Amino acid sequence: MEVFDAEGKSIFDIQPKKKKRYILFLFSLKREDESRIRTIEKAIQTAVSDFIMIRFEDPNEGLKALLVKNIEIVFIDSSLFNDDKTSIDFAVECKKRKKCPIFFIAKDEKVLIQEYREKLYLYEEFDDYFYDPIDFVEISKKLKRAAANLGRRAKRFSLGLPIKLFRLNTNEEIKIILSDISLVGFGIILRNDDIFKKNEQVRITVPLEEFKIFHPQYGEFLPLSGKARRISIDGKRVGFSIEHLTQMQIELLMNILETVTRRMNMIKIAKKPTIVEVTE
Q1: Range of 196's domain?
Q2: Alpha-carbon separation of residue 137 from 62, 127, 130 (angstroms)
Q3: Which residues sit opposite 206 in a β-bridge?
């Protein structure tokens, strides 16, 4: 027997209510900051239109909202405290209440990164920062990526190769970890307190022995040139685009990627549970 509610709709047709998603935007509206704040608001409304934006100029109200609303992303503008150290201290309190991505608008990029490294380095996977002049497109892209990754654990195959990197800007050689590589770029993890800047140029040599490859021209090492494109907020992870690839380098990179793919497939197979049929 079908049962109807007061409006004549079947109770079996009632869909569960979709949980509302919120972005918390914290700022102090001053005349000199108004243009930047409006740009950020527009980027939020455009990039993640299914989110509801909550605005506060009182940080205490923001902390309360984290406890009662389903806030999934937090924006902390430099105008809120006018001090990056205080912004990081406040972000620590936010993380205690809700572990969600936090986007900072930096007053001083170096101060923000230094303070972040000391107090929030455990949360660097999705946190990020921006600084003046604000790029509408960049904020929109990063917001979309953060929204897509919420609640999802990224599965990445890490090479974890210790190699040497040569910084062309400073003629300095440092030891790093090659975390990943593709036909268009590679990622590294820094092992010390070196600071990279966007567009900085480097050279690395990939040890081919790790992939059971020997090349008649390059021998046991593949040289690659790169330019810094992405730097994590804690400064420890840097993504590079590969510059000036020759056809021979492309072919060798494809051989490396084939080897990496085979390893990934073998790991997946090894993790699959074995089903044993028991017969009586």
Answers
A1: 161-270
A2: 26, 18, 12
A3: 222
